[in-house]
Amino acid sequence: MFPLASFLLSLVGLLVASYTDLRDRTIPNTIPLFLALAGMGLAAYESWSMQSFLPLVWGGGVMLSTYIVAYLFWKAGAWAGGDVKLFTGLAALNPFNPFWIASAFPFSFFLVGREWIVPSFLPVFMLNLFMVSVLMLIPYTALLSIQALSHVPLRKEFVHITGVSLFSAIEYGLLLVLFSFVFNYFSLPIWGSVIPLLFVSFFPGWIRIILSLVSLFFVFLQAISLSSALLVLVLLMPVNLLRNWYGFAQRHVLTKTKRISDLVDGDIAGERIVKRGEKVVREPPLSFKTIIKAGMQRNRTMILSLFHPSGEILADPRRAAGVYPHDIVRLKAEVKAGRLSDEIKVKASSPFAPAVLLAYVFLNAVGDGPLAWVGG
Fold first, then answer.
1. Torsion on CA atoms 90, 94, 95, 100, rounded to nearest 10
2. Alpha-carbon dihedral of residues 246, 250, 251, 254, nearest 10 degrees?
3. Can you give the pLDDT at residue 304?
């Protein structure tokens, strides 16, 4: 009864939030408030019926911890205020994965000796929901890359990216199968195979090719199941394609150049603009590539400057809420003073609530996957 109630109430809230987010790019405060009150009310009723404070403690505790983490994301500029409220409300109703769809329509999926369709016994559902929501944004954004194919130079770049994506998907798919086989052979947790996969990504390409050939050799010897290897490749190839198309769309479709004199409150900067003394400089947005590069070089100064650049930040892509009126005033003042040209890169925002809705339904159907193994 309680998982079904949590699922239905959350579904209603997310459907309404998705509609308003698609229509107005906003989520009314009444929606997360409804979710939070419904969640705490349901937890209180469950505590009363069980004669235990545990449901109330879990509901309140997960809601509070989710709010704290989401608030820090908001302070860092990574989230908009509506996302913070939405996840806080959902946390009250879903301290754990309701797992209702999978329970109503049970099925199994075994891979590398483990069952994947399982919920976690730890309160990791909101973390999982956030990660899968981000992934759900990728297909929508990736499809926007089609708009750029009318330009011949971009068409050539798109074809090159597609080829590289398919090759790397095959390469990393074979590596994942190999590492999963080794971990399973030594009775180690399968999720740990992701760790060597991350490490090997920093190795020279020829090492990865050799390891991929070793994986193929094991498949040929039937030490590794051919069906498991093919399944991993089939799953990984579209994911890698969409991931790279997403980056292509971000660069060529969702990022535009706009006059600073035409900026409005909420425009999201596509570049960092910093004032140091009497000089104004433009810097590329923070990315995983720049962080990894600084880490590999063990350049502490560079790492700190990426997150906390010296000087006065006039515009920052990390601010999900976009530029504020006082930011626009300062930027216009620098243009007027001749220290900054009257243009800035701006990013188009993607509605996040529909991605959360898709992720919520998906996780209720498939469970928490590898995160459930950690809690098992």
1. -160
2. 140
3. 60
